[in-house]
Amino acid sequence: MKKKTAYRFAAGLALVAAFILIWMNLGVGLIGTPDDPANLMYAGVLAVGAIGAVIGRFRPHGMARALYATALAQALAAAIAVLAGLGTPGLPPQGVFLMVNGAFVALFVGSALLFRSAARKEFRAAFEVGAE
């Protein structure tokens, strides 16, 4: 049971972060207004995570990599938006925009670290069983 706790927390954190990202993006739009086409970049961020999870077969090590890639995609979406000057000028201020995106990066990295911890526990458990 203890081995699965880190995996469950990691999955929960990733799902909560994805839900809040979708909710914020549809509600107020992270880049400009909700109907700004630049907001579709965040669909790509979530697609990176979903595709990575499938490729990693939902195993802890693969999920950790998928969530690191998701965090990178989130950071790249924010960087592209700022560098390209996307969205409505001054809405939201770039500092707030970068903090919100940084919070999502932190959530995805936190989830990746928890998945990595679950992978280590799974690895140790495999050797403990094999040693008996």
List the helices and strands and how they pair.
Layout: H1 2-27, H2 41-55, H3 60-84, H4 94-131
Helix pairs in contact: 1-4, 2-3, 3-4
Assembly type of the chains comes to single chain
Morphology call: elongated
Strand content: under 5%
Roughly what percent helix? Answer: over 70%
Mean pLDDT: 89
What does the radius of gyration come to? 17 Å
Unreliably modeled segments: none
Question: In words, what does this structure look like?
Answer:
The protein has 4 helices and no strands. The mean pLDDT is 89. The longest helix is centred in the C-terminal third of the chain and has 38 residues, at 94-131. It is mostly helical. The protein has helices at 2-27, 41-55, 60-84, 94-131.
Short structural description:
This protein is mainly α and 132 residues long. Helix content is 79%, strand content 0%. The chain is elongated, with a radius of gyration of 17 Å.
Keywords:
132 residues, mainly alpha, elongated
